[in-house]
Amino acid sequence: MVPNVFGMSQFADGGLITTKPYISGSRYLKKMGDYEDDGWGEIWDALYWHFIAEHSDAFRENPRMKVMVAMLDRMKPEVRENHREKAREFLSRLENG
C-alpha cells in the first residue's frame, strides 16, 4: 500500500503506478467534499494552472494531461496572467511567512 500512496501523491515513479499526477482544480474538491469556498477556490485554481504551466512540456507528452495543457494554451491571456499572479502571491506569502 505504501508504494501506491507515494506513487499517487507525488507522481514520484514517473508514471509507473499512475498515468498522471494526482492533482485537481477546486471544482473537483467542492464536488467530492463538503467544503465552503471562502476564497480558497480561486487560489487553488491559480495554483493548479500555475503547476500545469510550469510542467507543460512534460505534460504535453502525457495522453491524460495534454488535454489540460491544450486548455491552458486556449485560455485568455488575461485569465492566465491572473492565475499566474495569484499563484505567485500565494507562494510568496508561504516563502516569506
* CATH architecture type: Orthogonal Bundle
CATH class: Mainly Alpha
Total E-strand runs: 0
SSE-based structural type: mainly alpha
Shape: globular
Mean pLDDT: 89
**Could you estimate the helical fraction of the residues in percent?**
55-70%
| Span of the ends, CA to CA | 35 Å
CATH superfamily: Deoxyribodipyrimidine photolyase-related
> Largest sheet, if any?
none
What is the ordering of alpha helices and beta strands?
Answer: HHHHHH
Q: Indicate the proportion of strand residues.
A: under 5%
Q: Rounded to an integer, what's the Rg over CA atoms? A: 15 Å
Structure description:
This protein has a single domain, classed as Deoxyribodipyrimidine photolyase-related (Arc Repressor Mutant, subunit A, Orthogonal Bundle). Helices cover 66% and strands 0% of the residues. The chain is built from six helices and no strands. α3 (40-54) packs across α6.
